[in-house]
Amino acid sequence: MPPCLRKSRLNLNGDGFMNTRRFTVMALGSLVASLLVSGAAWAHADAAHVKVENAWARASVAGQQASGAFMRLTAQEPLKLVGVETTAAAVAEVHEMKMEGDVMRMRAIEALDLPQGVAVDLKPGGYHLMLQQLKAPLVKDSQVPVTLVFKDAKGALSRLSLQLPVRATAPAAAGAGNQHMGHGGHQH
Asked: Which end of the chain is more exposed for a tag (fewer CB within 10 A), N or C?
């Protein structure tokens, strides 16, 4: 058997106990795999703690210059969502839609408050991420990279990178809050 395959086999020492280092690597690998399968997106321990659920971006068609991205954010400490970055569009902003008299207006906002422990929905017709000047169409069943930028009470910035699934319509569970979507790395 080639050495690379032998290393992946479960090894027990003479007493029937697994090598501690291999067990640790296997346990971490299992944890990462389970997070990827569940789609849960959490910031790591030394950064802003934000849970992301039901994340998705709306598919676009050729020639369409803009699309939206949506999700539920729950911060574990008071934060502000102050920006969004993506390689998929020249401009990415946090937007709100609201009625002004008889007219629905959409505009970019500087910051969206995320109170501690309160789920904040970014959804069609309300707060959302706006991706403008798309570099290519957002194709259904693909993924789009998005990085959320947060500011804490002390003014420190942190970033949460996600891969959002692209869909033609909202996922069925988007309003139910029982599925987790999005996964990515977090950095300062």
From this structure: N
pTM of the model: 0.68
36 token code pair: 């990827």
Instruction: Output phi, psi for 28, to 5 deg.
Output: -65, -40
Task: Please give the Cα distance from 138 to 57 (Å, whole number).
Answer: 8
**pLDDT range class, residue 173, cuts 50, 70, 90:** low
Q: Where are the domains of the chain?
A: 3-37, 41-187
pLDDT of residue 32: 40
> Which fold would CATH assign to domain 41-187?
Immunoglobulin-like (2.60.40)
Instruction: Indicate if the pLDDT at residue 166 is higher than 80.
Output: yes
Q: Is 108 exposed, middle or buried (0-12, 13-18, 19+ CB in 10 A)?
A: exposed
CB-neighbour burial class of residue 52 (10 A; exposed 0-12, middle 13-18, buried 19+): buried
Give the H or E element holding residue 72. Answer: strand 66-75
Minimum mean pLDDT range among 13-27, 38-52, 106-120: 13-27
Nearest to 68 by CA among 139, 143, 123, 105: 123
What distance in Å separates the CA atoms of residue 96 and residue 101, rounded to the nearest whole number?
16
Tell which phi-psi region holds residue 63, choosing left (phi > 0), alpha (psi between -120 and 50) or beta. left
